[in-house]
């Protein structure tokens, strides 16, 4: 029984009878194969990547597991259509906090049509892509209260400037994701989600090292997904917040032809700088509300961010 | 007494009565201040950079020393004009091998005029900038015979593809810089010029680490200059080839505003990958002619590249 995914923050959505991805209860994500070149490109990528023995195992985990393609009833009622069958990365999570960041100051590539280049160029200049080397495509953050969720307008988050992006990245790891721009986010989860030996920053640095070397694929217009589950009152044994980084959206991947993906790598390094600044500037955190939510066995200390000062 | 520099490989040139840079015998390089915004931008950069205490000393050495501005007789006979007074980086060298590499897949920036953006974009697409993240703007390589020098057409080197750039980078460190595309360059100087703890690669990696962190300047349309002096029969005591990396051309530097220069960094990483591949693929070198030229006290072994296999 397929249903509309609850935690999608960017991309085409099936809600309201449109064509979009679906999920099932076994943890699979069904992405309709776009009719034009994009669908075949994305399938080619997954097929090539799955069988590429030169991709190290510690890098492979950053990509959704690919289960092939399958004909399923499309979400727009247009009958059975081919879908990519992928891992549903938020499967089993009750309150997944998710952010989709499209990496690269340029979303077009030389093989694109003149019209596509001009449209992308315009969007890259209107959004933060050109200035920051990435743009936030969408996000959702749960609060600690049962019903609280912050899911800002995609059109707004794409165009944030550097200071606003910093604030959103702090709010993403705070106990209260309140959209009130005046409030100072407490960054309670910064050390357990962004920091630590298995946190987001460590994972991004692993990806970066691979991008400094790999010359097989150019990940045009591809996104980094950051996700972790908000469990304020249920600190887990064993430590980490189980925060994860995934790469998604491969409809515009092209061959690297022996050259590294300098566009993706540059944008990734810029994003890494934003994350690491949050971890190295603890004086900008306000620890007053952190202790009750800190993950006692996690990256944060018993007093949350307070003791990292 | 000012004269036309002999070893300039890119940029405006004073030869034939044009407006271009001049040098003197004391090791200074006089660059005419371009009348438009570019001149004032370049001067602003040198002034800001000279007094910026946040630039580490080991990074400062990658920039030409700045001695202020001076009114000198312009090379085009138009009278006394203001010039930037800089360090002449090839001063005192008899056979400097020089390569100018313009870094970045994008040479324009958001503050540029629409017309400038379109012109740069066209050139970035026509040259290797878009595909490789950099383009070679010019080079000269001396051979071991007295009169031999290879100084290919700038218009040609800008448009080389990845394989051709690899070949040029090999030829730059070979005993015979013959432009015969069929010949296999011997890479005799690869380990002493590109390799070693003070070679080109080590210097580029230092620059890279700084670019991962610095958010003060965006070096749009700026070049990395690689230089070393060819002294085949005079191996120096103490080791290295004294190969140097310099950053030049700051007429389009803009404020970083708290964001790293992801465009420059991405291109620099791509260039680094090309250089490191030459060092890690010794099997593509042909060591047969190397021993007589190897730097006995330098990065290379007594048999040159042969023993690195």
UniProtKB/TrEMBL annotation, chains A, B:
Keywords: ATP-binding, Kinase, Nucleotide-binding, Transferase. GO terms for cellular component: cytoplasm; nucleus. It is an enzyme of class 2 (transferase). One of its GO terms (molecular function) is inositol-1,4,5-trisphosphate 3-kinase activity. Residues 283-295 have a biased composition (Polar residues). It catalyses: 1D-myo-inositol 1,4,5-trisphosphate + 2 ATP = 1D-myo-inositol 1,3,4,5,6-pentakisphosphate + 2 ADP + 2 H(+); 1D-myo-inositol 1,3,4,6-tetrakisphosphate + ATP = 1D-myo-inositol 1,3,4,5,6-pentakisphosphate + ADP + H(+). Residues 283-309 are annotated as: Disordered. The keyword Nucleotide-binding applies. It holds the Pfam family IPK. Its EC number is 2.7.1.140, 2.7.1.151. One of its GO terms (biological process) is inositol phosphate biosynthetic process. Belongs to the inositol phosphokinase (IPK) family. Inositol phosphate kinase with a broad substrate specificity. This is Inositol polyphosphate multikinase. The lineage of its organism: Eukaryota, Viridiplantae, Streptophyta, Embryophyta, Tracheophyta.
């Amino acid at each position: 029984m397929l249903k509309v995914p609850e935690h999608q923050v960017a991309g085409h959505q099936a809600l309201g009878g449109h064509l979009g991805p679906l999920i099932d209860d076994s943890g699979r994500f069904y992405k309709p194969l776009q009719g034009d070149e994009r669908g075949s490109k994305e399938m080619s990528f997954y097929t090539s990547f799955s069988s590429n023995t030169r991709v190290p195992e510690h890098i492979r985990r950053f990509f959704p597991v690919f289960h092939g393609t399958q004909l399923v009833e499309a979400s727009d009622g247009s009958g059975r259509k081919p879908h990519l069958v992928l891992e549903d990365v938020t499967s089993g999570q009750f309150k997944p906090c998710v952010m989709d960041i499209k990496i690269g100051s340029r979303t077009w590539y030389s093989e694109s049509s003149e019209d596509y280049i001009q449209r992308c160029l315009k969007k890259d200049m209107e959004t933060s892509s050109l200035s920051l080397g990435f743009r936030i495509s969408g996000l959702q953050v749960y609060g600690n209260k049962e019903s609280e969720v912050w899911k800002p307008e995609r059109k707004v988050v794409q165009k944030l400037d550097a200071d606003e992006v910093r604030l959103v990245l702090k709010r993403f790891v705070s106990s209260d994701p309140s959209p009130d721009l005046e409030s100072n986010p407490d960054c309670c989860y910064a050390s357990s989600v962004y920091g630590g030996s298995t946190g987001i920053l460590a994972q991004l640095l692993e990806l970066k090292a691979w991008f400094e070397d790999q010359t097989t694929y150019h990940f045009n217009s591809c996104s980094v997904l950051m996700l972790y589950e908000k469990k304020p009152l249920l600190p887990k044994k064993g430590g980490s917040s189980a925060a994860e980084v995934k790469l998604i959206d491969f409809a515009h991947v092209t061959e690297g032809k022996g050259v590294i993906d300098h566009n993706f790598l540059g944008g990734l390094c810029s994003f890494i700088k934003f994350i690491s600044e949050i971890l190295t500037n603890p004086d900008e955190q306000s620890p007053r509300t952190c202790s009750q939510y800190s993950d006692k066995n996690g990256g944060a200390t018993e007093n949350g961010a307070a003791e990292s000062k």
